[in-house]
Fold Bacillithiol biosynthesis BshC.
Amino acid sequence: YIESIQPTEALAQIEEAKRMLQDNYKQLMPLMPATLQGLTEKNEALHLRQFAYLQRKIENDALARHDGQLKKYAYVANEILPNDGLQERVYNPYQYIATRGTDWIRELCERQLQTSYKHYVVYL
C-alpha cells in the first residue's frame, strides 16, 4: 500500500536528475585541475545528499497525508500478528457481538474451515 501512495512521478524525476548530475560530474572530473578534484567530488556528494533529503521529505509527506489509513492497516496487522508474531489469544466475543451483532457467529460456524497453525482471514 505504501508504494501505491508515493508520488512516483516526482521520485522518478529526482532519480533522473541524480543520474544526469552524476553523468555531468563524470564529464567534468577529467577537466578539473588536480587541486580541485577533491572539492569537485565533495560538491557532487553534497548534491547527492540533497537529492536524498528531498526524496525522504517527499516520501514522508505522502505518509503524513495518508496517516489515518496507515494507522488502520497497522491496527489490523497488530490484531492479526501482535508484536509481529503468532500468539495464542482468547478473544472475548462480547465486544464483537456488541458491534456486529450475532449473525457473524452463525456465518462462521457454517463455514467449512480447516484447522491449521497459521492465521488466515475469514471474510463474512
User: Anything to note?
Assistant: The chain has a mean pLDDT of 86. The chain has six helices and no strands. The first helix runs from residue 2 to 5. The helical segments are 2-5, 8-28, 37-65, 67-80, 93-100, 103-110.
